[in-house]
Amino acid sequence: MKSKKRTIFVFIILILLAGIAFISNICIGNVEISPQDVFKVLFSRTGDEKIHVIITSIRLPRSAMTFFLGGALAVSGFLLQTYFSNPIAGPYILGISSGAKMMVALILVTVVGKTGYSSNLLLVLAAFSGALLATGFIIMISKVVRNMATLLAAGIMVGYICSAVTDFLIAFADDSDIVNLHSWSQGSFSGADMNGVTYSAIIVGVSFIAVMLLSKALDAFRLGETYAKSMGVNIKACRILIIMLSSILSACVTAFAGPISFIGIAVPFLVREVLKSSKPLILIPASFLAGSVFCMASDLLARQLFAPTEINISAVTSLFGAPIVIIMIIKNRHYRN
Amino acid sequence: MRLEKVSAGYDRNIIVRDVEIKAAKGEIISLIGPNGGGKSTLLKSISGQLSLLGGSVYIGKDDIRDIPLKEMSKKLSIVTTERIAPQLMTAGDVVLAGRLPYTEGFGLFSECDKKEMDRAVKLMKIEALAEKNFSDMSDGQKQRTLIARAICQTPEVLVMDEPTSYLDIRHRMELMDVIKELAGGGMSVIMSLHELELAMAVSDRLLLVYEDGNTLCDTPRNVVERGLIKELYDLDDKMYERVMNSCT
Questions:
Q1: Who contacts A309 (Cβ-Cβ below 8 Å, separation ≥6)?
Q2: Which residues of chain B make contact with A277, given a CB cutoff of 8 A?
Q3: pLDDT tens digits, residue range A271-321?
Q4: Is position B120 within any domain?
Q5: In terms of residue numbers, what domain contains B44?
């Protein structure tokens, strides 16, 4: 019963934080907007024309995008940690984000650069194929060597290779493309538009529901594959679903905002520690909300810290995420001894 | 549970061949035999962890290959020798996980599931551990928790690979009482045991698994009278005498 109260408390706090972060992201910027004005614009559609434009075409899409994609990253990380039964797995560190980035860069330079044709769907599909490519490679390695550290090393190497290829592509791209490519390949939410928000909301929403439907199987997975199978879980189908969903989620993030580091590892860990539970049914929605909050706060810092210059969001998420991961590694070691 | 001409092994290497047994409702069958003889392999094969290399296993009238996983999980539960390390789960959570086959959709537990958990926890006498973190417990405590989990799954057949490992002498004896109680309630129990004296005392029948992959099934009394243990473990006269003394 104590754990139930804790869960409810944590969820209330997370929802509040998400609300506060969302409003702050809309209010704070080069032009300060008061919360009252935001409500005026959003609900009664009155108020200053200039503020209306800033909110509806810049700040609102960006905040919404950060909300959906931050959550997607955390859930994607959670799925990968389950799959590899390794708490340090995540889309960025395993090179999956970089794989997605490489394919998007390839499509941007070849198709978009040459023909001028571009669509969100095309970019998401490119990112998804890149994510699957990188994930497939990591799975192949994990079958040969069953060692946590080796798996991570392999993932980091895959990440480097994909980033190197991306850099080559950028070097060969036309000047006009490079400007876009460069900021995006570092991770950034600038340039989010409502069309992209709709796309990512649909993709992330559907994937999230699918992950929630998997939560019972993931619950059984906590006792290892043998027991999960004996409790009625179709291991093969479940593993394929986990990989597909985590790839879709991280691909969606990469397609719209570029690779973003550490949210995938740090957030599920923090949420587990705060909830004192690893039950997927509560951990998945909690990770989503916490990922959204983390991402919105990081984006706000990335925009405001050296305003008007914007730094890339991965710089912020690394600054806060990496120490959390270090604490996690030390804590895990302590458990085992 | 009925085994017909079952051959078990890894890949294509048959380790145990042509096993024929019929475990009636409430019957306790213990697998005994030397290390590496294939007791674990056989147990894994009849519980669906390994595919059969020959023959068939039936639960009731159905071949286990035709039973959907979900149905199977209500008919058979396992205790393996594999060590697990679930994160942030209490012993109670681990036991309750045995009810997952009976939940719908999101895997939410009903009051009925919680009652089954309490029953299994009481049976294995782990009430004091229920709130403790599984990874902080001793190997013996973990083992008793995992057995409680398998009981909580309320199967028709309980398959356990060396359930007495890590248990001290008192818990071993208590486990034997629990197994008898479960069998009294109609559950069939098939397990491997290293302690001959326990196997003799608790089992309705013994399945002798020889090093060469052959098997033989008989009552404990007949196994002793026919002097089968000597050959099974390849003992000399002196050792055999000592073993028999400790069993009787």
A1: none
A2: 88
A3: 999 998 889 999 999 999 999 999 999 999 999 988 788 888 999 999 999
A4: no
A5: 2-82+156-247
For β-strands B28-32 and B54-59, DSSP reports them as: unpaired
The residue of chain A nearest to residue B47, with distances taken between CA atoms, is: A230
Token couple for A191:
């340039």
Task: Check B87 against A215: CB less than 8 A apart.
Answer: no
Whether A216 sits inside 8 A of B70 (CB atoms) is no
What number is the ipTM of this complex?
A: 0.94
State the nearest Cα–Cα gap between B221 and chain A, in angstroms.
Answer: 34
The verdict on residue B151 lying in a domain is no
pLDDT (tens digit per residue) in B65-110: 999 999 999 999 999 999 898 888 999 999 999 999 999 888 899 9
List the single best residue of A230, A269, A283 to mutate versus B (max B Cβ within 10 A). Answer: A230
Whole-prediction pTM value? 0.90
Best B71, B77, B84, B159 member to test A by mutation, with max A CBs in 10 Å, is: B84
Q: Which CATH class is domain A2-336?
A: mainly alpha
Statement: residue B116 has pLDDT above 90: yes
Residue B108 within any structural domain of the chain: no
From chain A, the residues in CB contact with B86 under 8 A are: 222-224, 278
Give yes or no for B110 touching A (CB within 8 A).
no
Structural domain total, chain B: 1
**CATH code for the domain in which residue B17 is found:** 3.40.50.300
Instruction: Note the pLDDT tens digit of each residue in A168-187.
Output: 887 777 666 656 666 677 78
Facing residue for A232 by CB, picked from B69, B105, B149: B69
For residues A111-139, give the mean pLDDT: 84
**B145 lies in a domain?**
no
